[in-house]
Amino acid sequence: MEKCKSILVFGYGNPGRQDDGLGPALAAMVADWNCPGVTVDCDYQLNIEDAATVAEHDGVIFADAAVNGPEPFAFQEILPFYQPTFTTHHQEAAGVLALAAQLFNKKVPGYLLAIRGYDFNEFGESLSAAAQLNLQQAATFLRQFIQNQAAGEPVGCTAAQLFKDRA
Amino acid sequence: MIASNTSNRIVIQPVTRVEGHGKVTILLDEQRRVQQARLHIVEFRGFERFIQGRPYWEVPVLVQRLCGICPVSHHLAAAKAMDRIVGVRQLTPTAEKIRRLMHYGQFFQSHALHFFHLVSPDLLFGFDADPAIRNVIGVAAKFPDLAVQGVMMRKYGQEIIKLTAGKKIHGTGAIPGGVNKNLTTAERDLLLKDLPQMLTWSRAAHKLAKDYTTEHLAKLAPFGSFESNHLSLIRADGAMDLYHGNLRAIEAQGHKIFDQIDYQNYLDYIVEEVRNWSYMKFPFIKSMGPEKGWYRVGPLARLNTADFIDTPEAEKARQEFMAVTNNKPNNISMAYHWARMIELLHAIEKIQQLLQDADLQGKDLMVQGQRQRTGIGLIEAPRGTLFHHYEVDEQDLVVRANLIVSTTHNNEAMNRAVQKVAHDHLSGVEITEGLLNHVEVAIRAYDPCLSCATHALGQMPLIVELLDHAGHLLDTRSRN
Predict the structure, then answer these.
(1) Which of A11, A102, B385, B390 is least enclosed, having the fewest CB within 10 Å?
(2) Which sign, positive or negative, has the C-alpha torsion B391, B392, B397, B403?
(3) Chain B: nearest CA to A116, how far in angstroms?
(4) Where do the H-state alpha helices sit in B136-184?
(5) Domain stop point among B331, B351, B378
(6) pLDDT score, position B244
(7) Residues A13 and A21: beta-carbon distance below 8 Å
(8) Is ipTM strictly over 0.85?
(9) Residue B283 belongs to some domain of the structure
């Protein structure tokens, strides 16, 4: 995989629903880093117009809360894949990649950073203590990933190596 | 899941969120005919507890966290309620026009998204087409220009929201008594640049919806359709007004049930019924009772209640729309899509008018008044009339909140639509792909918001289950 020239970090979720705010919280942290070549976006959920934003970048990292799965987080490459939805108005990350490829003829390498959360069922603006710890570890990982990008390492190799190291 | 001892029960469960999911239960009688159909939507709960004790001025921002789909509608309805709390009945011209621009931007992006992403596959490929093709990727493959238009129209509306609300998420633009920013000339010029293209695409989208509806009228007219009352806000002169007005309700033939009712008195006219099988309430018109007083809201209702639309192209489209039913209310559920595209056209015409108005660059943003204890704010959200009602104590803290969202107003109507479709299309006790498709299409006409909740990875996919009268699973079907 070629080195990314520009990276989009897209955190999504509802910060008013406890740990569902993990994605936006990570996006806010990345924005504070002011990394060259890194664009940060944030929304309640992914949607079709995000395909246009993704298509303007050379790589994208989606950050979302996970109701189950590995702790403290999982990081994996995702491939374009569209899953039809019933009537809700959100897109999966793989669906956004598929739309970027189909509509804008741009095949953007994509990764999903799934940060494990625990509390989702109440209104509340704060993350659970366990989710905050997971967020910190995910942020540390992502910062290293981005720094490696700046140093010129190929995206795929860097991600795989970091993932292996963390495990 | 409930099983009946005397009936077979078919369950269609499209679960896509932790809560905010929908489930369809079709109840058969002993002869295995459709006896009843129910749409269960788990509405957001706990909002009152979340909002109680918070300062009133935080509420327009807080309520956006209810829903990731229509945060702007909640933001503006709450701001209108808080206008009353701070004793303001009339905003400055700049404040009202900034809010209206934000609102029309929300309409534009929401209607474009619903039509291009969710509805156009049904219309372009047919209700019975394979879901693997009947989706936005399928549209992109066969009608690439149309798919790109949908994305770019949605993006344009989102840009309007960002510039008027301050940011994409948790916008702060509307505050009690006004707004906290105007639109700079640079921001205005940015929006004006793409406006001609948006107008062109809106006309094309309207034409697509109109042509489809009129060409397939014989098939669409009975599909999930029934006579109903209709309710919306209406301007003092009878014009459609999506931001502000008084309440008007009409019955199926167009006779007014009530008209020009100040929504501060809505409790005298609207009652919410609780039913033991649903988390969602069933509102009805008080004078008519629950059996006859239920009504529809949203684009179809607004087209039916309005005497006219105050923008030229949308008004011409409205006249064509009403002519289909000889200027009587249109009760065809699938006509929601055409009505929605007329509103899309209206929204972009309004955006055009507003962007040419120098008041948007005005400096007078706020008004203050005499502090009140109760504030009620109503707005026409893309899906229908949205009610926000708050009480605030002497310490400026919210002590009570009540919301009636658009999907709640349409609750009874969606149940009836599902029952009609089930009656017309269910054969035997098998949930066929065709039946599922038809149920989806009927519900989708209302553009219900099923996701006033969380969005996280690992949720359940669409599941369809068939149970016998004793609760045994006979069949299951999943989209994923």
Answers:
(1) A102
(2) positive
(3) 9
(4) 136-142, 144-165
(5) B331
(6) 98
(7) yes
(8) no
(9) yes
Q: What is the pLDDT of residues B171-215, one digit of tens each?
A: 889 999 999 999 999 999 999 999 999 999 999 999 999 999 999
Task: State the pLDDT confidence band at B4, using cuts at 50, 70 and 90.
Answer: very low
Angle between the B71-85 and B93-113 helix axes, to the nearest 10 degrees?
150
Q: Would residue B427 count as lying in a domain? A: yes
Please say whether the beta carbons of B13 and B463 come within 8 A: yes
CA atoms within 13 A on the CB side of B99: 31
- Which of B331, B348, B364 marks a domain boundary? B331
Which candidate from B137, B170, B458 shows the least CB-CB separation from A68? B458
Query: Does pLDDT of B339 surpass 50?
Result: yes
Give the chain B residue nearest A16 (alpha carbons): B65
Domain of B240 in residue numbering reads as: 226-331
Q: Do A49 and B137 touch (CB under 8 A)?
A: no
Which residues of B fall within a CB distance of 8 Å from A43? 68, 168-169
- Classify residue B171: in a domain, yes or no: no
Name the residue ranges covered by the structural domains of chain A: 7-166
8 Å CB contact of A16 and B459: no
What residues contact residue B177 under an 8 Å CB cut-off, 6+ apart?
B82, B83, B86, B88, B91, B95, B366, B367, B368, B369
Give chain B's domain count: 2
pLDDT of residue A160 exceeding 50? no
Confidence of residue B103 (pLDDT cuts 50, 70, 90): very high
Return the residue of B nearest to A42 by Cα.
B169
Put simply, the answer to whether A120 touches B456 (Cβ < 8 Å) is: yes
Residues B248/B234, Cβ–Cβ less than 8 Å: yes
What SS3 string covers B30-57? CCCCEEEEEEEECCCCCHHHHHCCCEHH
pLDDT higher than 50, residue B455:
no
Domain A7-166 in this protein, CATH class: alpha beta
Element (DSSP H or E) covering residue B250: strand B246-250
Of A52, A68, A103, the CB nearest to B144: A103
What are the distances in angstroms from CA B299 to CA B410, B413, B446?
A: 12, 14, 9
Could you tell me the sign of the dihedral formed by the alpha carbons of A40, A45, A46, A52, in that order?
negative
Q: What is the pLDDT of residues B221-257, one digit of tens each?
A: 998 889 999 999 999 999 999 999 999 999 999 999 9
Residue B362 vs residues A106, B94, B181, B243, B358: alpha-carbon distances, Å:
42, 6, 9, 20, 7
Considering the domain boundaries, does residue B473 fall inside one? yes
Name residues 20-59 of chain B within 8 A of A (Cβ).
22, 46-47, 49-50
